[in-house]
Amino acid sequence: MKLIAAMSGGVDSAVAAARAVEAGHEVIGVHLALSANPQKYRSGARGCCTVEDSHDARRAADVIGIPFYIWDMAEEFHDGVVEDFLAEYAAGRTPNPCLRCNEKIKFAAVLDRARAMGFDGVVTGHYARTEIGENGKTLHRAVDHSKDQSYVLSVLTIEQISGAIFPLGDTTKVDIRREAEARGLAVAQKPDSHDICFVPSGDNAGWLRDRLGSEVGPIVDQSGTKIGEHKGAYTYTIGQRKGLGLTIPTPDGSPRFVLKIEPVTNTVVVGAREELAITTMRGERAVWCGPSVDERHQSGFVQIRAHGAALPCTYFMDNGLLVAVLEAPLLGLATGQAMVIYDGDRVVGSATICETE
Amino acid sequence: MPSIYLDHAATTPMVESALIAMTHQAQVLGNPSSLHTHGRATRKTLEDAREALAKEAGCLPSEVIFTASGTEANNIALKGLYWAGQNSGKNIIVISSIEHHAILDPAHWLKTHEQAEVIQLPVSDAGVIDLDFLDNLVKTRGDEIAVISVMHANNETGVIQPIGEVVRIAGQIPVHTDAVQSFKKVSLSFSSLGVTAMSLSAHKIGGPLGIGALILKRTVEIPSLLHGGGQEREIRSGTLNAPGIIGFTAAATSSYYNADAVAALRDRFISSLQALIPEAIINGLSSERLPGIVNVTFPGTQSDTLLLLMDGEHISCSTGSACSAGVHEASHVLLAMGHSEITAQSSLRFSFGAASTPSECDFVVSVLPDVITRGRAANLT
To answer: Which parts of the sequence belong to the Aminotransferase class V domain (chain B) (predicted)?
Structure first.
């Protein structure tokens, strides 16, 4: 096949490209320039989107022996990922930008462009597997569960997955670094990227404050009594306990947790730990990585964070929303996150959480 | 699969005589600044080369200042002439809006760090500088202008600029010209042009990388950028790169480049391209141009996509400009010629060399329609 390898400048995508070449594919390396004003050097734990990273990617491509180009996707990234991230926070939800990037950039803008240019698919260094089943390709967890990235890929449609190649799904991260070393790739020991790539300092709250302002609003208890003030509701997360700055204690001295963020009134609602407990979540904009889910109740697992646990549940569709009813209650669940349904290791599909109870 | 190189304006293969002369000189011991026999021998060879190069450039041997690159020559000239003018109260730098980054960036640096006022000359849609604009500028603010720098021919479009007219309008104001693309491609004489300074580079004419020259009028004194041993008129210190200089001169004195043949190839390319892709726009077509450069806009495409697809066909050509991160940006040259951001990013530069052949030219034209089709499809996604 003729493939585009998306190369971030990190170790995973470099090895993925090398493996694709070895598998006999005709591969071209592409580094996505996602920032209109890239930083020159990496700082902190971040591992992509600097000029230095594009040089690392180029060097890896040269060592592997494949052509290399840089694609400017800054505009698409800004519109599809950064703006969405801001809008979601402004609406009181907690978005996952990596997921959005896979959905709108890597397996949309890049894949579409690749296909139009005569390529068959896109290779990435994601830790996930695909299998060919009766009804086409299906998406599965990586062998290395601690690195598994199927969660952030769950937004891909069957059509997108059909054009996705994940050569690393069968290997552990430790072995990938070892393999990179053996292949003479200088990025073998490059630190993993963490945090959100477009928040250079890693200071998410500060970055949001600069863009969304820091309008003071009330912190109230469940009866609506004001017990404190905050500087921007979006800097809080459901289930958050620390950093509330409350001086009025609860009658029994028990700690308070963020229960709800109400963007319209700019209010943060706090309450007791038990109040965080939810058993049912509903998600909108469901996407299926295989056969669609219908009204029939099925048992499986739901995952609500990138590296969170798979929680046993019953799932079904109800009035256009994907519903998951948990076997055991869960404490603290923010809307805006993805709920991803698994059937064993297979990704069934995902939706964006809009209601919990 | 044949591999075709149509990026000779970026760099071009070394001429055999230059390669031989250079590798020979690399084995000769002696620093030309040394006073002993070895040093004198190298000095003799170097001064022979300087005289030969001066003859080719139409200047005096003492006007040749060897540098490490065309970029360095541009920097010495622009900064030096600006500082010399600044000493007598002049702070305006006039450049064309289509200069190479090796002029644009030092001009911008002087603006940021040395209080320069930078005025850019507009160009016509055909890519030629606006002489009336310059004339008015000189008439109104001539006594404030420290230096005028206009390239001899543009590196992206190949359009030749009216340097003689610039010099006439400038009067007493020093004029520098970046002649890196023109040298040995078209007739070029420092003394006939009447400019104060002119930049040259070896690797664009079949000489080695890492060697260039600034031609600077004898009577002009400018501050230096590199201080040290005082080689090259106290303007450019550093041990002279004897092998590089010998290679440069060997290339400059060889007759490998047949301008008429290259121009014929260029015209063959243009006419077959126009027949196959009628909507293609040849930038600067109505202007006098260098023999080897063709700049084409393919509406509805993106240059970086086209380059990738051409590369996939084993054809090397260029998008014209790139920033340090490698992200393609709209060409400032095409923007200055009236292109929109979109059409300026839909262009490719093909540059022919002495050894380019008609069959290479025909093959490139034959793959273009399919590349353009795929490029358009990718642009619509």
So the answer is: 4-362
